[in-house]
TrEMBL record:
Keyword annotations from UniProtKB, A to Z: Membrane, Transmembrane, Transmembrane helix
Transmembrane segments: 77-96
Domain GGDEF: 136-267
Enzyme class, UniProt record, top EC level: transferase
Gene Ontology MF annotations: diguanylate cyclase activity
Organism (species): Photobacterium marinum
Catalyzed chemical reaction(s): 2 GTP = 3',3'-c-di-GMP + 2 diphosphate
Cofactor: Mg(2+)
Annotated EC: 2.7.7.65
Protein's name according to its UniProt entry: diguanylate cyclase
Amino acid sequence: MVDSSEVMQYILMEEFPGFSINSGTGVYWELRAAVKKENASIIKEINPAIAAISTDELNQLRQKWFWYKEPKPEFQWLYQISPVLLLLCFAIYYFYSQGVRLKALSVKDELTSQLNRRGINKSLRLAYSLFLRANINFSIIIIDIDHFKVINDKHGHLEGDNVLKSLSQLLQHQLRNSDTLGRWGGEEFMIICFNTELNDAVAIAERLRATIEKDMKVDGKSLTASFGIADIESSPGAGIDNLIRVADERLYQAKMSGRNRCIPDLASCEA
């Protein structure tokens, strides 16, 4: 028979692995048998067997009942380095997310949240690559706000910034999903129209021009813009730089011809 407190400790250790108990100090114990009253005669057979147990065997029983040694984890080294691994994973994630964010910011215009010139150039290279590989034509539209310097001089740069942001939002809402909008610089925007012939790009530009004149006001007067349009297939010469040069020339002609108009070719401003 063993003291009830020792039995309780043993039960706890059996039910909860890893539960550490040290009961080996100052514990008196004696190994005895207990049976029901009607089986009292069995004691006469059990007691001699208990008496025959050697000291080593008794110590083994004592270790099992009164001393519990917490096992060491097989992968204890993993617990030791896991904080380092966790910190390393966090650092990797942090720098990766920051890199993604910085990469996104590097091609975004801070004021309008549209692509900046760098982002537009990347999209232009993609469109030109598709043209060279699959002969998929594309057009560009360069938009310049008319008399924007007057707005800045009269109302200040904050108002000028508001005009740029409002125009950016209007253009974005009017474009197709396949079109790419960006701020080309200053008061100029560029639209890349993928898989779009020149005539279709002219129709898009004319619709945008009319919408800007109708919906955007400054000092109660309509805001207007001029448009230069070119497509890669019909532009003389070759390459992205030449395409931009042609669109710029047509934008300049739109300005010189009275502003608030779309110029898809030089002949249109002479007619």
